[in-house]
Specification:
Elements (H helix, E strand, L loop, with lengths): L3 H10 L4 H8 L2 H4 L5 H13 L5 H17 L11 H6 L5 H12 L15 H13 L3 H26 L4 H21 L1
Helix pairs in contact: 1-8, 4-10, 8-9, 9-10
Length: about 190
């Protein structure tokens, strides 16, 4: 899989900002040309359905849905983006410590000014991108096997079920398909 997949999907699952929403409208489709036609069509359809929104409306659409899905919602958060929630039903559990250990073994640490948890899906995707970019396939395969593949399929199912605008649903479908292919390949 193209290493850019990890970088782009990390951006998708970070809290959107105006720079990202501008990128979605100008450059994103070109950058995902390596994906299959169904994945591209899902993103293209979302962008086409929302092309009449001005930049601020488009940003608000994504920001509000991101917040509802991944940060805060009443009565409860539909799709917490943290590994430990899915694996241990807690925040900052043993799986989070395992993630931090993986980062440390790769010579990385979470920046002090980072204001989220280290097992956030976007951070794990950035880490996978880092490992691929540096040719560390052994660590990449280990992290996929021991962490990412253990919880992200469940996360994707929740996103597919709860997204109201279609953007995150499509991203979750593509991500889930990617993980299933990786899991199948690792069993061969």
């Amino acid at each position: 899989m193209n290493k850019e997949f990890h970088r782009i999907f990390s951006l998708i699952f970070h809290r959107p900002d105006r720079e990202f929403t501008g990128y979605l409208r100008n450059g994103f489709i070109k950058d995902i040309e390596f994906l299959d036609s169904n994945a591209i069509a899902g993103f293209s359809n979302f962008l086409e359905e929302n092309r009449d929104k001005n930049d601020e409306e488009f940003y608000n659409l994504l920001a509000v849905e991101y917040t509802r899905l991944f940060i805060t919602a009443v009565p409860g958060l539909p799709c917490p983006p943290y590994e430990s929630i899915y694996r241990e039903d807690t925040v900052m559990g043993d799986s989070t410590l395992g993630v931090l250990d993986s980062y440390s073994r790769a010579g990385l640490k979470v920046m002090e000014n980072f204001h989220d948890l280290p097992d956030h899906i976007a951070v794990e995707l950035e880490f996978l991108y880092y490992l691929m970019s540096n040719g560390n396939t052994e660590a990449y395969d280990c992290f996929m096997r021991e962490h990412f593949s253990k919880w992200v399929p469940k996360f994707c199912k929740e996103v597919e079920k709860n997204d109201r605008i279609g953007f995150y649903r499509n991203a979750a479908r593509v991500l889930e398909k990617f993980i299933n292919v990786r899991i199948a390949a690792s069993k061969e």
